[in-house]
Every structure is written in structure tokens, then in C-alpha cells.
Amino acid sequence: APVIEIFRDRSPSMSVPPAKAALCDYLVGLFTAAAPTCTVVEREEPKTPRSVRILLGDTLTEDDPDAVLARFAHKAAGVIVVRILSREETAPAAGGASELVDAETGERRELVLDADTVGAYLQALADHTARWQSACRRHAAHFLDLGADLPRRERLAALAAAGILEG
Length: 167
Hints:
This protein is of the alpha/beta class and 167 residues long. The chain contains 5 helices and 7 strands, in the order E-H-E-E-H-E-H-E-E-H-E-H. Helices cover 38% and strands 26% of the residues. The longest helix has 24 residues, at 115-138. The protein starts with a strand and ends in a 6-residue tail after the last helix.
């Protein structure tokens, strides 16, 4: 039977906000239920040749997307990257002086979240997204942005529009 290997980002940033981790749980259950003739397993590293490999995470890492995808695409039947970000990460509001805490390192930084700072952040996120999308094209992987805050119906529609789910 076909195998679907799911690789979940378990870094601390996936728990901020908790909706990101909850969406990962939802997706694992959804993929398991949607593929009753497949074996769906969560793994830390690719193991089964010719499996479909699904990466669930925020991609907020300094790792080179090409290196990450080369490892997952090797001997895979297909690779899907589902990037999960919260509304706070994709559309932060300007709001004056703030203390930000890096979820990965615990580093604290005081910033003024004015329009220029938010604009620079959004440009950096767009550049980061473009690197991941380009790497996905080079490795014949699908890339889907899926908001952690989306209602269930919109999540399903996005998965169907991307060709990841049918029906």
C-alpha cells in the first residue's frame, strides 16, 4: 500500500500561537482519514522510498530550503510543503513600542512597530517565501501557505485548490 510520511516541525515557534500546533494535529488526522488505503506515519527522517512526503511547519528557519527539500525529495514519489503561519505573522499590526520574544531562542528585543518596521518585516517574509517557493519548484514539490487562523471550510478549500485533497 502507498505510504504517506508526515514530518511535523516541532520547534518552539510552532506553539506560538497554539493554533499552529493545533492545525498540525488537524492535518495529520485529515490526511489519515482522507487516505484510508494508505499507511500514514509521522517520522523524523525520510524512510520509505516512493512515499509521498508532507512537511508541516512554519519554515521559519535559517536552513537552506534547497538542502531541506533535497533531503526530502530523494527517492520520494512526491513532496508537499504546508507552511503554517498565524495572522500575527502574516499581517502584523503597527502598534508602537513592543517587546518581542524569539520563540526559538528566548531572546527579547524591544522594537518600535511602526509602519517602516512592519514593512521591512513583510518584505523579509516575502523574500523568505520566494526562496521556499523557488526551491519547491526546483525539487518538484508543492508549496501551500495555510493560515493557522483559517476556518475549517477555507482550509479544506485551500488544500483542494492546491491539488492536495480531492472531493
